[in-house]
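Objective 1.3, modelling of assemblies. Example input:
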Amino acid sequence: MKHIICSGCSFTRAGRLNINVTSDNFLKEDDQTGDSNEFNYYPHWIQTLHPETNVINLGSVTNDNKTIARSIIYKIEKLKKQEIPLNDISVIVQWSSFYRNSFFVSPSKQKENQKLKLPQDRGRWSDENSHINDFVEEKTNLGEHGYYFLTGGFGMGHVKNPIKDFAELYLGHLHSYEERLLSFLETIVMLQMYLKSNGIKYKMFNIANNFSDTYVLNCINGGGFPDFKPTGGKRNQMYEIIKNKYIPNTWNDKMEYFSNPYLKYYYDMIDWDGFWFYEEENNHKYGGVTEWAIKNFNINDPNRDVNFRNALFMEQIIRDNKEYTEDNLIDIYEDWRCPLGHVSARMYKLFTQNVISKWNLF
Amino acid sequence: MKHLITSGCSFTSLTKPNIDFPVEIEIPLQHKRRDMWTWVDWIRHYNEQSYSVYNYGCPTNDNDTIVESTLYGINKLLKRGIPSNDIEVIIQWTCATRNSFFIPNGFIDKNKIVNAHTNDFVDEKRFKFEKGFKYLTGGYNKTEQPAELNDITMNYLALQFSHHERIINWLKNIILISSYCKSKGIKYKFFQLNNNISSYYYNRFKGLSPKQNKMNTEPHLPIKEDLLKTKDIEYTWDDTMFIDNPYINYLVEQIDFNSDFWFYEINNHHKFGGSLEWTINEWNDNIEDDSGFELSNIVYYELENKTEEEIKEFFRTKSYGHPSSLMWRKFYFEILKPNFL
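Predicted structure (tokens):
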């Protein structure tokens, strides 16, 4: 049997790994969310469309890329101990935004400061353990062997854990696109080397474009994304996304930051054949699943799976029995919000059928 | 001709790569003070015909920067068309507890930045720090750098630093460089500044506050006036490795400590030792110097021209020094030549 390990952030799983969800029971767990099957992400669809495989879902919300890579290596080492042949393992990595970071909070640090200890609430939608990843399985209590504090997009106002004081200090004094890219590239290289040296097939894709200048240089802005509308455009971003399938033009981006020699050598070491990118001639290079979803969303698709919301993003919920139409999707958008959401179940089914299933992993 | 890339901390170079000296241009060794020679200089001296040596060692380096500069050096050689099987790597790992932060150009007022605790190892620059630099914590001492850099170090130490997270980071570095070298067919071998592995060193640690003694984060040989006579290096023979923790264990299991590392061992007494333990235990006052360079028979570089009383004072107050040129020469003949080259 082929074991397909998937990992990523909330674009791979709506839960916290080994806090309130497990890696092997996700079909059942996700059906118990009270929101039917709208949390069917690509691992769901791989499992249902390829029932001969065993999908292991390590995705965990708010994850940064370092934690994504480490949780994958941890799980593979576990499978090795179970004597699973390495050529029966494949890995799909959904990289999160490159500008995220994480900090390991050790048991000794928790002894020094009791407030760093984790609440033991494992509720699926509890906010108590937001921004936490505790991916090891060998534990009785949360955080007993330490845990990763995840910065996510640095919106930490709701977080009670005092490690956020350091995260905010880091954000103010150290965070830069250069040091985040350095860390991201190192993480990619390390994981690729590990997988190659173990003879494990893999494919990597991004939550959204993580490499083009247009995106990277925007990471210092609050949302971390460039505008999804033409310069000077009068319509709001959701109108442009839904009606015109607008995504930023990155075709001629020079990726100037990689000329920095502190980044260039890592860039040169990456095996780019291990990546899938959304690409559209003369418009977009280095796109991720978000750009793919925008470009491939067709509300009038006659073959779409009618069991799922006819939406582009998971967050687009039309209430009061109104129809899912382009105009209604645009109407519910509020201008102050980031226009991008999580790829919907309906779109992830298409992504799995049309993109992932073609990868040489099965 | 083989191409050897070396990296480490001040045990590998007492000056800064691509700041104090160019890495790619081999300055003749006779221009370098012989009392400042490290193990790398002795490799160069005795292997001029067989090795081109590129030394990325830098004082205060942490293990992140050691790996980054090594990968940078490998990448440069590969781009020059050097076949990977003509490249070799020797890394001297520094204290696992150190850390570093990348500071981009423009982040801090460049007129306020001084050299202390920095590494700017790239050579594609018109002036120092043009492309950014690594800010090195070293032993977490306050430096003459701008307050914002000192604040980062001190707050990191108080709010985030732990042996667990530092061990995880070091193991990540070992896995990264060893798997990269393996994938390219590059011969590599490691040794440590000091024992960073035996659980003794971590289990005796009882927490840290910003006001606490920084010795908790640096090499920890006993501070004893008569250490050179007693040579009572800690007993670690029965110790396990690191700290038993699932966030650490899966990383440890991936590393081939037997073949990738050289360790100094004293049978039934010390395991997982590094060059520092070797230096203390192997030094004696009858070491022969047939180098022709009239090297002083001192254990540490810092003890050159010191009186007996000053030497006693050194051992009363300091937990370690840097091996002398004579000791590094001995290290070359007894350890590096048979095990690394």
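The first strand of chain A starts at residue 3 and ends at 7.
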